[in-house]
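Fold this sequence, please.
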Amino acid sequence: MLKRRVIPCLDVDRGRVVKGTSFRDLVDAGDPVEQAQRYAEAGADELVFLDISATHEGRGAVYEAIARCAERIFVPLTVGGGMRSCEDFARALGAGADKVAVNTAAVEREALIAEGAARFGSQCIVVAVDVRRVPGGGAPAWEVVTHGGRRSTGLDALAWLARAEFLGAGEFLLTSMDRDGQRRGYDLELHRAAARALRVPVIASGGAGEPAHMAEVLLQGGADAVLAASIFHFGTWTVQGVKRELASRGVPVRLEAEPGGGT
């Protein structure tokens, strides 16, 4: 059976790992290279490195930090933030990333997905999609937001996911802005709807507070992987502690010994 992945996320702002709530009220959570190495050694299946202020500030990603991370870790590394062209993709991959995540730039110019897939292969192109639930009493719906959650687009999230897959996205990083940092669980309705609409893998993001939440979205929400930040950065859980809990709930994961034990 295909193993489900547990992926720590390094949200980086001005060279430091940060974590907030719904992308706001950011708190320093350490050095990105040290954090990346620690998670890789602890059994993370992959790592995601997101320069969360690059797009908003109109600059490129922090390639030097990416290179330092890639030198020290031996698990797949996905890099996002400030990715606006195939040249940016090439620079990130050249610095040591295995995949690139594109969000705002893909919404602004959807052909970028197809160009990246044609040049580097769909397996390298992760489309990050940040969404907010549309208020109302009807059927659930979600709107795509960009620029780190600062701008509404009017795009229906499910329609955008399907379009991005058609253009060549090899994977999605799907984040509920409503749940981000809340630690009360992933938006299961969102992920179920995405799983029904897509054939490529989806990484669930936004809302992890405990392993039970991860098990829910993997077993009931159709996600292929779970991404989390707060519970790892602040020592609530270790990667292997989460994996042991997931395994006990029937989720197929890659287990290995972790020095020092602990949750």
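The first strand starts at residue 5 and ends at 13. The chain has a mean pLDDT of 88.
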